[in-house]
From TrEMBL:
Protein name, per record: Insulin-like growth factor binding protein, N-terminal
High-level lineage: Eukaryota, Sar, Alveolata, Ciliophora, Intramacronucleata
Key words of the record: Disulfide bond, Repeat, Signal
Pfam family, one: DUF4215
Database matches in InterPro entries: Growth_fac_rcpt_cys_sf, Myxo_disulph_rpt
Hydrolase keyword on record: no
Superkingdom per UniProt: Eukaryota
Organism the protein comes from: Paramecium tetraurelia
């Protein structure tokens, strides 16, 4: 709705609506429009205000007839992008819940305008309330049914009146009453607009079930040289979170009008009840198998029989805990609930103990119950850190050197190896300077132990057992690789060899990835190597 003329001015990408009021009349250029809105509790209003920079404007913005914003243009910094007009950006967030809103703009001067008008709504409480009744929420309505009518003096009022661009239900007296039948609930909320006409200071009283619950007053009217709808006042009534459990509800609106020289009406009525759920239990979470799920009793995890969420019996393989929970048995080789592992036994230090990962003894680096690195002088064998002497003793190997081994040790000038408990650990075939063929060593070994190998097998001095004569591919016929004369073997510097993997080296040699490596600069002289000295430095 516009009072007096307007024009549209094009400025780049913007179309500006310019209000042209009559000269010599202040507050005569006015525009107003009513918008229907969905459910919401907040509106955002934004637009560009255009004025002539040479004028001293007072600009008024009304929302539902209540002053929302007053702008004195003398205090503004305008963007002069469409001479002779400059613009100013306006953006307002307004708490609002009615099903319609009327925006009114007016200024004391002529030749002002607006562009890029936007109106948006937000709803932050939509899941907390249920809309059970709504009426007079359309901008324009032509009839009112008996069900939608409100009573005045025991007579149902169905009279429709209009103001500016909207309709409302008019009362024939000073009050309006309506009764409602509601479903099961515990709280109510409702809102409506009370429009009071030709009464300077307006007051509206709200009663619920004949009890006064609110009194609101307002004297806010649109400032204009013209009389708009008998200078009406809008009172926005909003009752929230009112405790109410009865299935019968009566709402009454009272004013001071007489129904003739002054009168009132209502519109935008909405009634809500809380979302009332019939539930057996409520634990305020969405976790299943905890005794209550989706507001209904359920059994705990592992429970076979429960009453009102309390477990009576557990499933096979579970036992009833004192805290009304079923706990799985540990050690049954079944992985359940909080068990990280279950190896079917209660043996400690085997990678899994009490259904949790555990590290083997003498392990310094363990990942998911598997040892990755043992302590010094321990070897990782079958997921255990085992002392070399203990392991070979358990396997039945002899730790006392034979006469032939003693002779070889003396000749090689390596007698001190015997003192380091390397007896019987295949040190004979590990000497670089004194290498004996498998035939010679086997012959010596036969003399001591009277051991013979089957056909197509050959005795391995490193393994001290018979192996197939060709179980690996010997590409290089040197006893420095993993295969020598078709026998899996370790390099000469290895003291303990198991399945072509070395677990101990000569003094001064470093064990890296089951290989013996001579490293210059490690402050150790690698026996039988070409090192003559090692001061731990790499400088010349």
């Amino acid at each position: 709705m516009e009072y007096h003329s307007y024009s549209v001015v094009n400025c780049g990408l913007s179309n500006i609506v310019i209000m042209n009021q009559c000269l010599n009349y202040y507050f005569n250029g006015l525009t107003s429009k009513t918008f229907e809105l969905p459910l919401h509790d907040l509106i955002n209003l934004s637009f560009k205000l255009w004025i002539k920079s040479s004028y001293q404007y007072k600009f008024y913005l009304y929302v539902d007839n209540n002053l929302q914003l007053l702008i004195l243009t003398s205090q503004l910094s305008l963007t002069n992008n469409c001479p002779p007009y400059g613009s100013y950006q306006i953006s307002q967030n307004i708490v609002h819940s009615s099903s319609s809103v009327q925006i009114t703009m007016v200024s004391n001067e002529n030749y002002w305008g607006f562009s890029e008008f936007n109106l948006n709504v937000e709803n932050t409480t939509q899941n907390l309330w249920e809309l059970v009744y709504q009426s007079f929420n359309k901008q324009v309505f032509s009839s009112i049914s008996l069900d939608d009518g409100w009573m005045t003096n025991n007579i149902i009022s169905q009279q429709i009146s209009s103001c500016t661009d909207f309709n409302y239900l008019k009362s024939q007296g000073d009050n309006l009453i309506k009764d409602f039948a509601l479903k099961h609930h515990s709280m109510i909320s409702f809102n409506l607009k009370v429009l009071i006409f030709n009464y300077p200071t307006s007051t509206a009283k709200i009663k619920i079930d004949n009890e006064l619950v609110a009194t609101q007053s307002s004297n806010s009217q649109v400032l204009s040289s013209m009389i708009i709808c008998q200078n009406f006042t809008v009172i926005q009534v909003e009752i929230s979170n009112f405790e109410h459990k009865s299935e019968n509800l009566r709402i009454e609106v009272l004013t001071q009008t007489d129904g003739s020289t002054s009168w009132f009406g209502i519109r935008d009525f909405s009634l809500f009840t809380d979302i009332y759920e019939v539930y057996q239990c409520k634990d305020f979470n969405i976790q299943p198998f905890d005794g209550c799920f989706s507001n209904q009793y359920d059994c705990n995890l592992g429970c076979s029989n429960c009453i009102n969420g309390i477990c009576i019996n557990c499933l096979d393989g579970w036992y009833l805990h004192t805290k009304n929970t079923c706990i799985p048995f540990c050690g049954d080789n079944m992985l359940m609930l909080n068990e990280i592992c279950d190896d079917g036994n209660s043996i400690p230090y085997d990678g899994c103990h009490n259904c949790q990962f555990s590290c083997p003894l003498n392990c310094i680096l363990c990942v998911f119950g598997t040892c990755k690195e043992c302590e010094q002088s321990y070897f990782f064998i079958e997921n255990r850190c085992i002392s070399s002497i203990d392991y070979f003793e358990n396997k039945g190997y002899q730790y006392q050197p034979t006469s032939q081994q003693q002779s070889i040790l003396q000749k090689s000038n390596q007698q001190y190896l015997v003192k380091k408990n390397y007896y019987g650990l295949n040190i004979i075939s590990s000497f670089l300077n004194f290498y004996f063929s498998d035939y010679l060593i086997t012959r010596y070994y036969y003399q001591d132990r009277q051991t013979e190998c089957e056909e197509d097998s050959k005795f391995s001095p490193n393994k001290r057992q018979c192996v197939q004569t060709c179980n690996c591919q010997d590409l290089v016929s040197q006893q420095t690789n993993d295969c020598y004369i078709c026998i899996q073997n370790c390099q000469l510097e290895c003291l303990i060899c198991l399945q072509d993997k070395c677990y101990a080296c000569f003094e001064g040699w470093q064990l890296v990835d089951n290989k013996c490596q001579q490293i210059c600069g490690d402050n150790q002289i690698a026996l039988t190597s070409n090192e003559q000295c090692d001061d731990g430095q790499s400088d010349y």
